[in-house]
Write a structure and sequence with these properties.
The complex is a heterodimer of chains A (about 180) and B (about 325).
Chain A lengths: L1 H12 L5 H13 L1 H17 L9 H13 L1 H5 L1 H4 L13 H15 L10 H12 L13 H9 L11 H5 L9
Chain B lengths: L1 H31 L5 H14 L2 E9 L2 E12 L2 E8 L6 E4 L3 E6 L4 E6 L9 H6 L5 E11 L2 E10 L6 E7 L5 E7 L5 E12 L18 E4 L1 E2 L4 H4 L5 E3 L7 E9 L7 E7 L4 E8 L9 E5 L2 E8 L2 E7 L3 H9 L1 E3 L1
Parallel strand pairs in B: 6-12
Antiparallel strand pairs in B: 1-2, 1-11, 2-3, 3-4, 4-5, 5-6, 7-8, 8-9, 9-10, 10-11, 13-15, 14-21, 15-16, 16-17, 17-20, 18-19, 19-20
Classes of the chains: A mainly alpha (about 180), B alpha+beta (about 325).
């Protein structure tokens, strides 16, 4: 179950997770700090492998990358590829899932590190329900409560040469929560 | 003695006139010097948008839809006033001055009043633009014509998929924005604004900046906090975003009440110099569930998720991947 979860986390980082699975995973992320930490590490590794790290890495950042990599046993396997990480890597884009699949296979060979159980019986039921209710992730519908945030945020985007309020005037609003 | 004094006064007065004249010349020269670099063109455009009076009609294109709007802008010693209204479909309007932003939405008979953020006379753009280089490439790509006017085209290309690319068409005489395009890192267009008619420089009468709708019989929603009380901006946020996308740093932090009767929300603002992303952390009212997932409004994406009893909402003019990533990596400091 936890391997499946980690695979889903990796797919989430790679933006390859189906909407139904995403809904369940988000719920679990909200309730599980260990899973949350793991997501942060996967994201850092993904950045590193896709060469998205800042050109001038500060030492602290470098250390945190190293720490993240060391936390992931499989990334040792990938380390020879990762040593070139801080040089420009034209066209080098490896999905984080490659590393993570390796993590999972290594963990299954060596028994892996214990991770707190995050899935319980109700979660399994949620999973089924989420699959049934699966909606496209890019739903355009603005949910209730969101518009107040959007109005507020616009004030921070006004100095950038665009006319941010055109989006409010050009899109349907639902400040009172009615769809 | 008397004549000596008169001479002194005359000299002083001429000196004062001379100083004033040379100051005026210096200012005029600054405005007259044509911008040399892409950065200077952008700087001039930001200034024109804030400091000129204008009345323009433009089209807004997004998600295969085209809408027509009108904008009226007045700049005076008292500050800026702006009115933006839809010319097609529902008569939505946004009015903005240095204190409040009022959004009138006839579709659902509601008015939302938020606080506007005091704008500096000229934004601190030069420094911001300096910090852009690792994440964007700035380029002057030549001249073009928009609405019958000659424009200089400035391109800002993103270097990764965490931000959008921008292209601005800037009037070559008054440096007004004539057109802009936002696109994804692969060049896919996301949204476009193009003026079809623009009058610049004529004084906009204050009466023209009044809303056409009174909002009577509408539901009114008001936002509070975020600046008027020193405690709103004091200290450090209790929350943080782990592993920010490269180039983003926190530029603002406030506590504000965004929903009537709701709890104070923590609001953190992150910027890479061009794009701005807001992160809101708000305690959920009892018995309500966090909204989760992605919503889009043209180039603006929002991602919601729950963490314990809190609603996490990230909003920004950045790709969906950026808001999703930031929302999922919000945690306690």
């Amino acid at each position: 179950m936890k391997e499946k979860l980690h695979e889903q986390l990796s797919a989430l980082v790679d933006d390859e997770l189906e909407a139904g699975e995403q809904a369940l995973l988000l719920r679990q992320l909200g309730a599980d700090p260990a899973l949350h930490e793991r997501l942060a590490r996967y994201q850092l590794i993904s950045d590193a492998m896709q060469s998205h790290l800042p050109p001038q890495l500060d030492i602290g950042f470098h250390k945190s990358t190293q720490a993240a990599l060391q936390d992931e046993p499989a990334v040792y396997v990938e380390k020879s590829r990762l040593t070139g990480l801080f040089k420009p890597l034209a066209g080098f884009a490896v999905a984080a899932s490659v590393a993570v699949v390796a993590v999972l296979s290594l963990q299954s060979i060596h028994g892996g590190t214990p991770v707190p159980a995050v899935a319980s019986a109700p979660a399994t039921q949620d999973y089924l329900r989420a699959e049934i209710e699966a909606r496209p992730a890019s739903a355009v519908r603005t949910p209730q409560r969101l518009d107040a945030y959007v109005v507020n945020h616009n004030e921070y985007a006004v100095n950038r040469g665009m006319l941010p309020y055109v989006r409010l005037v050009g899109h349907e609003m639902n400040v009172d929560g009615k769809q | 003695m008397a004549s000596n004094n008169s001479v002194k006064w005359l000299l002083l007065a001429s000196l004062a006139v001379l100083v004033q004249l040379s100051l005026q010349v210096a200012i005029a020269q600054d405005d007259a010097t044509p911008p040399g670099t892409a950065r200077q063109w952008l700087d001039r455009m930001f200034r024109s948008l804030q400091s000129l009076d204008y009345d323009g009609t433009f089209v807004y294109y997004h998600d295969g839809k085209l809408e027509a709007m009108r904008i009226l802008h007045q700049a005076s010693a008292g500050g800026e006033k702006e009115r933006l209204m839809s010319l097609t479909g529902s008569a939505r309007e946004v009015l903005r001055d240095d204190k409040v932003v009022t959004c009138i939405m006839p579709d659902n008979k509601s008015v939302m009043v938020g606080q506007s953020r005091p704008r500096k006379p000229f934004p601190a753009v030069p420094e911001d633009l300096e910090s852009l280089s690792p994440y964007y490439q700035l380029q002057d790509v030549g001249e073009d014509r928009v609405a019958g006017l000659m424009a200089r085209v400035i391109d800002i290309s993103p270097r990764d998929e965490y931000r959008y690319g921008y292209r601005f068409w800037i009037d070559m005489t008054n440096f007004m924005l004539l057109k802009y395009e936002l696109s994804a890192v692969d060049g896919t267009p996301i949204e476009q604004v193009m003026f079809t008619g623009l009058r610049v420089g004529d004084r906009i009468p204050t009466a023209a900046l009044e809303p056409s709708l009174t909002g009577e019989g509408y539901n009114w929603y008001r936002q509070e906090g975020g600046g008027e009380n020193p405690a709103d901006t004091a200290g450090q946020p209790d929350w943080t975003v782990k592993e920010l996308p490269a180039g983003f740093r926190m530029t603002d932090y406030q506590r504000r009440r965004l929903h009537q009767g709701g709890e104070y929300a923590e609001h953190m603002v992150f910027s890479d110099g061009m794009a701005t992303v807001s992160v809101y952390v708000e305690k959920l009212p009892a018995n309500s569930k966090a909204f989760t997932g992605l919503s889009s409004m043209g180039a603006m994406n929002a991602f919601g998720t729950g963490l314990d009893d809190y609603q996490i909402t990230v909003v920004g003019e950045v790709p969906a991947a950026t808001v999703q990533r930031m929302a999922l990596l919000v945690g306690r400091r």
